[in-house]
Structure formats: C-alpha cells, structure tokens
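User: Show me a protein chain along with its predicted structure.
Assistant: Here is one chain, sequence first, then structure tokens.
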Amino acid sequence: MSSTQLPKSISVLIPTLNEQEGIKLTIDSIPKDKLAELGYDLEILVIDGNSTDLTRQIANEMGSKIILEKRTGYGRAYKTGFSEAKGDIIVTLDADGTYPAELIPDYIRYLNEKKLDFITVNRFSKMEGNAMLISHRIGNKLLSLVTSLLYSIKVKDSQSGMWIMSKTFADAINLLSDDFSFSEEIKIVAFRFFKAFELDGKYYKRTGKRKLATFNDGWKNLKYLFQFRSLVKFAVKSTHENVAESLLINNS
C-alpha cells in the first residue's frame, strides 16, 4: 500500500472466554453501517479461549469469524488475532461492552490524518459511574505512573485494551507477554519506536463477570514493567524498515 493510499479494510479483534452475556452487545456496538458508508470493508475476529458457554455460537450467528485459541492468556489471544487479521487497520475491543466502539470511525480518521501507527484509548477521560472498582482505579494509576517513569513515555492509561493500529505496525512488533501485561507492553513499544498517541475515550459498566484478579494481576503487571526493561529492544522485528534508526534514536 502506497503512502498516499488510504487503508480501506478493518479488522476488529475481540478476545473472549465465557462472554456470552457481553459478546452480542459488543458486536452490535460496532458501527458497521457507518464504516461501510466510509468505504471500509469490515471483518470481526473473535479469538476464543475455549469458552464453555454460548460465546462462540452467539458470535458466529452474528457473522463473526471464530478463531479457537486453546493456549491461555490475553496477550496470546491478541498475538493470534494479529497474525490472522486481514485488515489494513486493526481495532481491539473487550467482549464486555466497556469500550466506545461507536467512536471507531473517529479514531480511524485521526490515525489516518496524523499518519500514526498506533492509538490507545484513555478510559479515565470519561468513565461511567461504577464502571471500575476503586482498587482497579488505584492500581491502574500506579501502573501508568510507573510505565511513564521507567520508559519515558506519556501514557495516562497503560492498561487500556482499546487500540487502533495499522497492520504494518502489528506485523512489525514482536511482543513477549501472553498475559494482561501485553497491554502495557504494546504501548511501551508503540510510544518508544513508532508514531503513537493516546486519545480520550469512554468506559462503560461491564456486562458479565469480572475476570481480572486485582492484586495478583496487578502485581504481575508491575513486576513485568521492570523485567521488560532489558527486553524492550527485542520487541521490534528486525525486518521493519526503520527499526535500526528508531532503536538508535530512542536508546541514545
């Protein structure tokens, strides 16, 4: 694709594990007609971690492509989804209806106009009441602060799971985490080595049961921030055309 040719296909990736309560709402919230009016072809990929409820059946009935990923982990699901996605642009959503899918056209427009590689959405800019536990808010703020200090990047919400990125970016990265720390890892790499930006968003109350273990997952993510410092230079594939120059600039 030439630099003057706008991307015209979109892949929306949704990792799932027993999300029968939220998957229909999530898929319905994607503005399919609006995206079609803008000339985008759309595919919806549900990367399912071997759900035992009706998640896959509901998603299949709604026209999504189902990818069964029996290897566990949030990050593992996204690695599989990135490799399977066909769109020029990749958008990620949780399957619980928490993210503002209705804003996808606006985010894509910004990505194109600013010629960015990656956008992450700040949940804290406009959050519904009771959408996040107080303990989760405190933990997220702490992780975001540590991320910013350790890696010299400006991110207000390091754990956000709604991202908009070019497929070339997804193909160029070589992320290591298979767990929830994948979310902070992808932002570190995006802001250190690519053109990335954090946009204001919204965050709605979850549909279905929470799966995040406040202390255990938070502690794992905090430890990973320190462990990843020695590994960050390996998180971009050597075949990416500007990697050598980016590494020199950002690590000088």
